[in-house]
Amino acid sequence: MSNHVQTVTAVVVLTTGVVLSYIDYFMPPVGSIEDSVLSYLAHTMMFSGSVLGVKTYVDYRLPK
Fold it and tell me: pTM score, two decimals?
């Protein structure tokens, strides 16, 4: 159950970062992404990577 919640949370957070980046890219001025949006995207990528990385490491190292 906990692994499922971690995976869903990581995917949802990463999806919000990507969607926000696409929205900002197509807002005027077109083709420009604000620094705050890029910062948010970077944070979502780090969060998702760390959550999924820890999950993978724990699944690999701990016997079931």
Answer: 0.79
